[in-house]
Amino acid sequence: MSIPEVGDPAPDFTLPGMIVRDGTRTDDEYALSAVIGRTLVLAFYPGDATPVCTAQLCSYQEELDGFDDLGAVVWGVSPQALDSHEAFARGSSLTLPLLSDTAGDAIRAYGVQAPGIGLRRSVFVIGPDGVIRWRHVGLVGLRFPKAETIRQQIELLVA
């Protein structure tokens, strides 16, 4: 599938995910349709506990309160299973939901699959109306948008 453009409705999905807070893992289902009305930062990343993914998600973790103050939620999505996500979250002190797309359904729906590497490191800012308002899709996956850049995009939505 092709990558949705800014202004397109965000493809809906429901994925299993988990979050570690206060040392406790909580599993849940995460659906785009359930967060309509809030801004969603959807961060696709290739793998748990890899150096670039760790740097990316840790930088977003540092800005989590700032995103929350703007009414935005942040979800990480990768093809690893929930147990892998749990180890990554605990090892990197991540408290944002990590979603497991082992079948690649959301990865394909957002057009970010990449032969050989699994998926392209990508971030989509989805407005409260369910429309894609900003996106960054990496070609090789070594670079990622800074949390400050994403925050600026969210601020444009709430201005």
TrEMBL record:
Domain Thioredoxin residues, every copy: 4-159
KW DNA repair (keyword) present: no
Keywords of the record: Antioxidant, Disulfide bond, Oxidoreductase, Peroxidase, Redox-active center
Catalytic activity, as annotated: a hydroperoxide + [thioredoxin]-dithiol = an alcohol + [thioredoxin]-disulfide + H2O
EC number: 1.11.1.24
CDD domains: PRX_BCP (cd03017)
Record text on subunit structure and interactions: Monomer.
General function of this protein: Thiol-specific peroxidase that catalyzes the reduction of hydrogen peroxide and organic hydroperoxides to water and alcohols, respectively. Plays a role in cell protection against oxidative stress by detoxifying peroxides and as sensor of hydrogen peroxide-mediated signaling events.
The protein, known as: thioredoxin-dependent peroxiredoxin
